[in-house]
Design brief:
Layout (H helix, E strand, L loop, with lengths): L8 E6 L2 E8 L9 E5 L5 H9 L2 E5 L3 H17 L14 H19 L2 E5 L14 H8 L7 E4 H16 L1 E2 L7 E2 L11 H9 L7 E5 L5 H8 L4 E6 L2 H14 L5 E5 L8 E6 L22 H10 L3 E12 L1 H4 L5 H10 L2 E9 L12 H8 L2 E8 L1
Parallel strand pairs: 2-6, 3-4, 4-5, 9-10, 9-12, 10-11, 12-13
Antiparallel strand pairs: 1-2, 5-6, 7-8, 13-15, 14-15
Helix pairs in contact: 1-2, 4-5
């Protein structure tokens, strides 16, 4: 039986000789089957045609010209077909518009992902005027292996952007202006309204709290600063646990917070159990999207179903949830209330806040109208 390669590779011919490089893709995209070397002489129209046909372009020219080409590809995708018009049927519902939009975004990502950059064995980009992306790559992938690789330019730009977020941090008013430093692949707390809701809700007790889905550790930090003596924070993602540990260490709160790799609840019962699950019940197309999309509302329903068994007497569960899914027709308020009642829970109160995030400027984006009506809520739940 042939051995399976531990990592995917891309293959191409250059200078009359076969070449190979390790394929890097945090988005989970398969290694392209067809790869051609390309440089500054390639026109944007030719690049667009090749990318649409599924041919990846391994860039050998100037780095900034590669970025300009990527922008040119984006303009051609936005322009759409030049002939024939739009023959798509009228949309029947917001959910249909949402799913169609996600399909278009996936196609856009596929085409843009065909522009590749080479990487040296130390994650250096061997192109003219290329930035030093070694730290960004190491944060996402771990130490360099000495093996040449290739990555989509679009993905490398995401790694560099994440590195800057991690370096600068996100200011959290609820922590007195202290900063949370999100790691690559961990949801950044740029939407501060859900953090403020946790900072303002009346505490049912201060002895022990559970933070389900720790992420960056921001909610654990807020609870610790509010005087909760001990917090057990869980997450299944090793990156999230490492990120939370880093932030708690920076804030001097590690002694109050225990981090545990677990699916939802830790053992025992607590006076307070907090959960901020992914808000949209749709299938994640890439591993990174799991912070936003939760197929079948698995985490939300699991939290509700197990909450009563993990609450101390008189304890509360705090569910932080946007109603964006309701505006998109992906989940109804009645369904959510049915899940609450079926879990043997009752709603004590609900606090709402308007989100403070940039609205989409694309009128064709179904999130554009939904976000204009979106409200983030903290549901205070108790066992019946």
């Amino acid at each position: 039986m042939p051995l399976t390669a531990p990592h995917p590779y891309i293959h191409w011919s250059e200078g009359g000789a076969p070449r190979t490089a390790r394929w890097r893709s945090e988005s989970g995209t398969a290694a392209p089957a067809r790869v051609l070397p390309a440089d500054d002489t390639l026109s944007a129209d030719a690049a667009y045609r090749l990318a649409c046909e599924g041919t990846a372009l391994l860039w050998r020219g100037d780095y900034h010209n590669a970025r300009q080409l990527l922008q040119a590809l984006e303009r051609r995708i936005a322009r759409g077909p030049r002939k024939g018009g739009d023959a798509r049927p009228a949309l029947a519902s917001p959910s249909e518009a949402f799913h169609r939009h996600r399909q278009a975004q996936a196609q856009r990502a596929r085409v843009l992902g065909m522009l590749l950059l080479p990487l040296d064995g130390d994650y250096g980009v061997p192109l003219r005027r290329a930035p030093d992306a070694r730290a960004a790559c190491a944060e996402a992938w771990g130490p360099a292996t000495g093996e040449p690789a290739a990555v989509a330019l679009r993905e490398l730009l995401g790694l560099v952007g994440a590195h800057e977020w991690r370096r600068k941090g996100v200011e959290i008013p609820a922590l007195g202006g202290a900063r949370i430093h999100p790691h690559y692949g961990v949801f950044s707390p740029v939407r501060g309204e859900y953090v403020d809701l946790v900072a303002q809700a009346p505490l049912p007790g201060t002895e022990l709290a559970f933070d389900i889905g720790a992420g960056t550790g921001v909610l654990s930090a807020v609870l610790a600063r509010r005087g909760v003596r001990r917090i057990v924070a869980t997450d299944m993602d090793p990156r999230a646990l490492a990120c939370a540990r880093d932030n708690l260490d920076r804030l001097g709160l590690s002694a109050q917070v225990e981090l545990l790799a677990a699916d939802l609840f830790p053992p025992g019962r607590a006076a307070l159990v907090v959960c901020n699950p992914p808000w949209l019940p749709a299938r994640a197309a890439t591993p990174i999207e799991h912070a936003v999309y939760d197929e079948g509302s698995r985490m939300l329903r699991g939290f509700l179903a197990g909450l009563a068994d993990h609450l101390a007497a008189g304890g509360e569960g705090w569910l932080i949830l946007s109603d964006l899914a309701e505006h998109l027709g992906l989940r109804t308020r009645a369904e959510l209330q049915e899940w609450v009642e079926a879990a043997g829970l009752r709603v004590l109160a609900r606090a709402d806040a308007r989100p403070r995030h940039p609205k989409s400027r694309d009128a064709a984006d179904p999130l554009h109208e939904a976000r204009a009506r979106e409200v983030t809520s903290l549901w205070r739940l108790a066992a019946r």
